[in-house]
Structure formats: C-alpha cells, structure tokens
Amino acid sequence: MGRPVPQADVSGTEPFIGQLMLVGFNFAPRGWALCDGQLQAIAQNQALFSLLGTAYGGDGRTTFGLPDLRGRSPIGRGQGPGLAPVSWGQRGGNETTTLSAANMPPHVHTPTAPQVQVRGAGAQAVGVTTGGAVSGGVPVGSTSSAGNGSGFSNRPPYLGMYWCVSLFGIYPSRN
C-alpha cells in the first residue's frame, strides 16, 4: 500500500511538502491535513518534520506539531520598517483587548455650561439632602467614572475558512 498522494493544485503541479492552502470546503483533501495544531508522528512524517521541526509544537523526539491557524491570521516573519520582529512559528496577539487609562491619550472633559442655576434659599436642588437649602450657582467641572474594564474583540471583518498543509509532495530545495 503506497502513501497518499496529494491532489495537484489548479495549475496541475504537485505541492511542496509543508505548503499551505486555503480552501472553501470543510475538509482537508487527500494528502493534506487541517492546520489545527494536531501532533504528527515523526516516524510516519520524517520529510515534513525535517521542514517544520518543532516550530509549531511537539516534543521533537516522537511528535511534531502542524501550524494552528484556527482563529489566527498568518503574517510574514522578520521585521518590517517600524515593526516589531516576528520569529518563525511565533504566536502573538490577544483574543480580546481591555483598555485602561494608560492606553488612552491625554484628554480632558471640559463642561460646556459654566454653572447650573438653582432656585433660591429654602428650595431643594439636586445633590442637596432633604431640608437643605442652596442659593446662587453651582459650578460644573467634574465627571464621574464610567465603564467596567471588560475585554472586547478587536478584529477586522473576517470569514472563517480552512487552512490545510500538504503532508506529501515535492521536497522544497533552498535554491
């Protein structure tokens, strides 16, 4: 019994071992596996292990991991101008974000009314206990805290699809 041969892509060429492919259907074609972080046995996948190593998981003795692109966007490794460096296999980002005062630019909440007029002596006004009296104006100049510090998703619009990795095919040369 021979090994499964991956199906050729639309150009009719055999894929490279370890090549990724995005598909619009809900399964990995024959000779491909879903990029869901599953562990593979090194003994049965030596060529693929020689390319991926333990960049995506595994113990490096009996198993290695496939890339896990569930809920993630792949980005190029390296460092672009003005960007932080990204290593091969490095995971980053957060599922949710929580803003704090330290994340916000300096700002003030300036009231638009210089003061609030209240009725004369003997009248009740907002913030005055029962039986109290206020006359004149009350300066406006403070705000109260708001929010509860809950995290929120910060994703651009997205569409869930399946990433697959070729388990077999042409072993890629470096030059």
Description of the structure:
By secondary structure, the protein is mainly β. It has a domain at 1-72 and 153-175. Helices cover 4% and strands 14% of the residues. The chain contains 1 helix and 7 strands. The strands form 3 sheets. A 3-stranded antiparallel beta sheet has the order 1-7-2, with no helix packed on it. Pfam families: Collar. Residues 18-74 form the Phage tail collar domain. This is Phage tail collar domain-containing protein.
| N-end to C-end Cα span | 33 Å
Whole-angstrom Rg? 30 Å
Protein structure class: mainly beta
Number of strands: 7
Observed structural traits:
single chain, mainly beta, 1 helix, 14% strand
Strand and helix layout:
Blueprint: E1 20-23, E2 32-34, E3 39-41, H1 46-52, E4 63-65, E5 115-117, E6 137-139, E7 162-166
